[in-house]
Amino acid sequence: MAYSEKVRSAYKELIDGIRNDGLFKEERYIHSEQGIEIKVEFPAGSEPRDVLNFCANNYLGLSSHPDVVKAAHEGLDTRGYGMSSVRFICGTQDIHRELEEKLTAFLETEDTVLFASCLDANAGLFEAVLSADDVMIADRLVHASVVDGMRLCPAKHDTFKHSNMEHLEKKLQEHQDARYRMIITDGVFSMDGDMAKLDVICDLADKYDAMVVVDDSHATGFIGKRGKGTHEHCGVLGRVDAITTTLGKALGGASGGCVSGRSELVEMCRQRARPYLFSNTMAPVVVAAANKVLDIITATTERRDKLEASTKYWREGLESAGFDLKAGDTPIVPVMLYNAKLAQDMARDLFDEGIYVIGFFFPVVAKGQARIRTQISAAHEKEHLDKALEAFTKIGAKYDILGKSKDDIIAKYGL
Ligand SMILES: *Cc1c(COP(=O)(O)O)cnc(C)c1O
After folding, report:
1. For the structural domain made of 26-55+302-413, what CATH number should be given?
2. Residue 203: phi, psi to the nearest 5?
3. Whose CA is nearest to atom 5 of ligand 1?
4. pTM for the model
């Protein structure tokens, strides 16, 4: 049949449909290194402009940190560019093992195995350690890659209402006849910036004999007093059986992920996880830089402390300007707008003011829950925050939403 005109036009129609639904994802090009002061071409084809970045996962400001870049150069010089092999053949270097050991020490777990991404870690873990006799019980708002990993696993699937511990308990009671029960949650939820109640979850896991798996991608490096993650913040270090996390956010932001936890679970990943067995792991240059990142965040909490203070300043600034925020204490600060078009229009206007933020709406968040998600970084200086607060206040006033409640905003703009 080949790629006939009929097939082509069917796909074109699909793409047009996405565009007509207002769901088309426009690419934007950054013409500089990733950081706070960046040059962005948006929309594609327009003149790039200087903006302040408030939408990256660069929580610790390490994406372009000179020491990290230098470590990457050294890695390139001493360990070369590529592995040209999966790990179980000949694709592991000493620096890969070094990084696993550093992550184990930092996260206070028993062992760690690297993957090319956290998506791969989530794709590999569940299938490697569970069978059809077991059940996975996941928070309903877990990340898409956790959902995909669960799909690949023959164990039974169930969910509990977001952070609803009574509902989780009910599910654990219902599944007492399964061989193993595994509770699965994100540590910090990316769209709302709220945290899982890991202390309660670990208590329930003890009571009902379940394992606990946490995807801590939006927490590793900065949540908790020493930045270890949600398990540190919730006082359950050593009680989470497996953590999956990414090196693509706070930890330098290039790429890579891992499963870190009970040594047997990690060993099962080495033996059975398909992304480990059939796909190359992280490139040496990225591993060398990540080793440096672990050194930095192990030596000092300076960056996560600054991030915490800046987040507080940012949140209070937006609140006193009269914005309606989602409550929370992570560097993810969602400005609630409810109406999808309003979120998009305001994000566009803020871009024109030199502030780079993104409006999120269905299907990324629930219908009627549109928002601009702002994200703070340790690399934001007070002057950046002040400039952004000024721009937010100006644009908020333009749309007459300052000091307005959810109901006021919905009454004015609809859902
Ligand atoms: C970003 C993210 C991932 C994906 O991480 P990659 O390493 O980029 O694949 C997985 N889980 C959660 C919760 C995330 O936020």
Report:
1. 3.90.1150.10
2. -65, -45
3. 118
4. 0.97
Q: What is the pLDDT of residues 276-310, one digit of tens each?
A: 999 999 999 999 999 999 999 999 999 999 999 99
Task: Determine if ligand 1 sits within 6 Å of the CB of residue 227.
Answer: no
Quick check: CB of 145 below 6 Å from ligand 1? Answer: yes
CATH number of 66-299: 3.40.640.10
Taking residues 57-82, what's their average pLDDT?
98
Q: Where are the beta strands (DSSP E) in 205-274?
A: 210-215, 242-246, 257-261
Question: Measured in angstroms, how far is the CA atom of residue 53 from the centroid of ligand 1?
Answer: 20
* 1: confidence class by pLDDT, cuts 50, 70, 90: low
What are φ and ψ of residue 222, in 5° steps?
-145, -15
Helix (H, G, I), strand (E, B) or coil at 157: strand
**pLDDT per residue as tens digits for the range 221-266:** 999 999 999 999 999 999 999 999 999 999 999 999 999 999 999 9
**Residue ranges of domains in the chain:** 26-55+302-413, 66-299
State how far Cα 128 lies from the chain centre. Answer: 23
Catalytic positions are 190, 218, 249
* Element at 358 (helix H, strand E): strand 358-360
What's the token pair of residue 160? Answer: 């509990």
SS (H, E, C) 177-199: CCCCEEEEEECECCCCCCECCHH
Say if ligand 1 is within 6 A of residue 257 CB. Answer: yes
